[in-house]
Amino acid sequence: MKTIIMGYGRIGSQVGKLLTEQAxxxxxxxxxxxxxxxxxxxxxGRIIRGLGFDHNILLQAGIEEAEAFVAASHSDNAxxxxxxxxxxxxxxxxxxxxxxxxxxxxxxxxxxxxxxSPNNWGAERILQVLIHSELDVWDTFGRGEVSLxxxxxxxxxxxxxxxxxxxxxxxxxxxITRNEQxxxxxxxxxxxDGDVLNLVVLSTAMARLEGMLGLERR
Length: 218
What we know:
- This protein is an alpha/beta fold.
- The chain has helices at residues 10-21, 36-39, 55-61, 76-89, 102-110, 123-131, 162-165, 206-213; strands at 2-6, 25-30, 46-49, 68-71, 94-98, 114-116, 136-141, 146-152, 171-178, 181-183, 196-202.
- The longest helix has 14 residues, at 76-89.
């Protein structure tokens, strides 16, 4: 996965290192000349000096081919602007913005922008949002150990029962929305085409859930 990270502070650096360790292609945009010192000798990505909302800098970073964009600078305003440019102008499939102001984060979340609050999320949670892109994470509990995930019923599920998906201690189907009506299923409820599932998932079980649903991991 080709990912651009704007801002190489504590969160940005952790996300960058985690991604490169998993063999993803990472480009860092940072105006701070000291960013190199936070990368470490094993960092295999590249760094571009400049502002992450500058059109030419984004093009230089490869925004037109990027599959994910993380706005993790220390400025909420800069993160919002950069994230909206990445999503609305360059149509990057997966865009995440770190916002310190929880009220603004909630507002932009309602507008369809994935926002991360440093009080509740860390680099590992951002990584999950990027990599498990078919699983729409709506909320987390505790320190992010458990997630509330929304996903459309996949062909592998149609005709099967909820009992087929529920795995004790890892994930379970909390509700199903069918014909715009939500209900709490029982173990014998049969999945139908068009169902939208809300699942409670242990964060470490995301990959296993994707495999069960037949989703491709990025």
